[in-house]
Give the backbone structure.
Amino acid sequence: MSSVTIDAGPQAPSGLDSFKQTALYRFLIFPLGQMLVFILGATVLLTVFVYGLAVLFPEPRPNIVLVEQLNRQLPGMIISGISIGFVYAMIALGYTLVYGVLKFINFAHSEIFMVGSVIGFSFMSFLNSLGMLAGFNPILLVVSTVLVSAGFSGLLAVGIERVAYKPLRRAPRLVPLITAIGLSFILQDTVRAIASLTINDFNLTYPTRDIAWLQSPLNPLVFNIGGIDVRVRITAIIIMIAAVIMLLILNYFVNGTKAGRGIRAISMDQTTAGLMGIPVNTMISLTFFIGGALGGAAGALYGLNVGTVTPYIGFIPGLKAFTAAVLGGIGNVTGALLGGILLGMIETFLNGTLVYFPAIGIRYTDIFAFGILIAVLIFRPSGLLGERVDEKV
Amino acid sequence: MTVLLELTQVETFYGQIQALKGISLRVDQGEIVTLVGSNGAGKTTTLKTISGVTRPKHGTVRLNGNDISFVPPHKISAMGIAHVPEGRRIFPLLTVRENLEVGAWNVDRKNVIAQRMEQQFETFPRLKERINQKGGTLSGGEQQMLAMARALMSGPSVLLLDEPSMGLAPVLVEGIFEIVKRINEQGNTVLLVEQNALMALEIAHRGYVLQTGKIVLEGTGADLMKNDTVRAAYLGEV
Ligand SMILES: Nc1ncnc2c1ncn2[C@@H]1O[C@H](COP(=O)(O)OP(=O)(O)OP(=O)(O)O)[C@@H](O)[C@H]1O
Ligand SMILES: [Mg+2]
């Protein structure tokens, strides 16, 4: 018998390993790379899929050649898919962060998003009433609107947790869930009542008419790529930039700060986190604030993009963001990003393609989003990235 | 000797079930005190009542003379009690470094944290090798080391250890007791809960024997080891 010696000693860290510990990698290169991979992956997958459809159904309607339509629309679909995907991702993070610490789905989160969009409207209208809107620096305008909405929604989420969820923490799981759904209706109707009483209308149109650069449907940026004019809405670009910045900040907060570490510890083991000196209730409030702020910021960006918001706009995007969170793996921050981007792109590509098919049209594309939700819940309830190692212990 | 920790007639309930039926004990500065007893005697509950996870219905828990019976756990931790819970309970998705940093939650000065981390690596060199590894991927013995190191990061005045030898191979068990002794010699006060009564009493200055929520015997480690009841009940002799 020969003996084999195995070097069981510690391995010297390689250059790559130590690079991976640097802040530059952890908080910039890695998260940006991750977003890029998700976006490219989804783009390739869906492009193959829609061109596959074009092969199967070259002419879905008389005189409509699907390939030609796709060639013309592809860049636009990619851009708007990414931007709506980022909106879903930002909302989805609110569901996932709260689920992480409390193991509870905050179904009122869609209304936090709605309130963000309404606050964005109110803030812009306020500036407008002061006559300041038209002369405002564009970047400053977007930044301040998003920040005001984020701050307000964040505080609202904290208030809701304190008043409506905290007293129920020891109640059976169904109880806070029902409370959350009830809260949704209360928030919708409260916003409607306030809007009706103050401006006598609850269709709230962002006062962007006077801001030429924001009149994106009329004034899109046009790029000429390979002989095809690609029209890109300015708001889509604003959403992408704002979302990337906020997602980078969130990643830094969760993985790079003491408070983020505390929140992660609480989501793994609340009792032990308390034993380590972590103020559990404060950290839970902070989690609601961060999730609410992201939702509110998404609301303002969404409002800018669609132009008109109502107290009822939260429901569908909220449900889709919830789908995105479940798709990526509820409780998993990276999963929310992946799920959001995937869902946004799937939806946009299907909208852009199915519109040429008789009898399907775009009216039914929500079926796909919620079909995905049901399929994930049945076949992979832990989501795409949702394997939580901590639950094996 | 200054009394650090003192329990007086503590009674703790889980709903209707009374787990502690009037526990009185004290831990002096610099001691290793051990609490032995069979399954369900109330050892874990005693530690949880000290660290604030469960509340006493009657009686008081005092730290340095201050009543802490109703102080929330995170504040008790800040006051100087570090609890290594039963089953280790390290944070599985945090790295070794992050677990240690969480242990130092109430330490504000960065250089103190760095220095304490170095101290832990001297005591537990294994942890240094695995500093960027996720806690959940460590072996059972390494997890126990991490749990102890994490607790020591707060610079506690009392360390509560709940069955540190549980589930470890015999060689490792000896190692863990060695380390507990060494930690104590470095100036830490320890309240040690163990089923492994023989080894616990061997390193302890004093001990208490707990039976169905009551203390039935107390004395120095050496005296308790000689006690016939203890030998019969916990050291496996008839
Ligand atoms: N969360 C709980 N709910 C209800 N009863 C509990 C709970 N925790 C402990 N008990 C009961 O309290 C009593 C004391 O339990 P405890 O965990 O303190 O015992 P222990 O001495 O640590 O036992 P072991 O050596 O098995 O860890 C037991 O009868 C147990 O069943
Ligand atoms: Mg126990």
User: Anything to note?
Assistant: The radius of gyration of chain A is 23 Å.
